[in-house]
TrEMBL record:
Domain of life of the source: Bacteria
Pfam families with a match to the protein in the record: DUF4998
Annotated protein name in UniProt: DUF4998 domain-containing protein
Amino acid sequence: MLINMIIMRSNKNYIGTCFALFILLLTLGSCSKMNDLHDKYLKDGEQVYVGQPDSAKVMSGNKRALIRYWTSDPKAKKILLFWNLKKDSLLLDIPTKSRLEPVDVIVGNLEENNYAFELVTTNSELKNRSIPLPLNIKVYGDLFQASLHNRKVKSSSYSTVTKGLTINWHGAVEKSVAVEMQYVDLNNRSVDTLISPSEKSSILGSFKSGLSYRTIFLPEKGAIDSFYTEKVEVPIVLP
């Protein structure tokens, strides 16, 4: 009985000792890995990041896009702009004007498509960079232009008393923002006027002849370019 107790106590001591050795080896291994990382950190030098632009937005256009950004980090001296899976890029100096003012960048010669841009600020030597700031936008072009249609005239009437021409319209066209009208008045002057796309009837005062119009479109809110249909001549017979 006494012998068994001694053996059991010895086994417990042995297991405890092995467990303590295991913990010690694990701790030494972790410390070694941490030291390796620390040595690599010191060897490569401290990584200094440049701050991202404080904010940025992108606005669509006709085969182009406008990127507007704000940056306040004094370390940011240049900005890199990537798109097309980083196959295309621009490197630009950040203006030295007030850091509170926005900076506009126009990216031209774009195909009509969806684009994912990335903005990266960097120091003068291009060594230290910011984390990329993503921006997504759809750029418009010939396909959007080909889809546009003029607003249609329903009827017209002329008043011999007021000398005004009334144009009655069919419903507004989607994404239209105005209708541009042109005619000659009684003083033989060319008159240009814009009317709202929701206006149901338009009165052109002192009308004489030569009415034409076109519809103006904005592909989306905030777009930097308008699109226009071809001008249409409206035959008017005066009494």
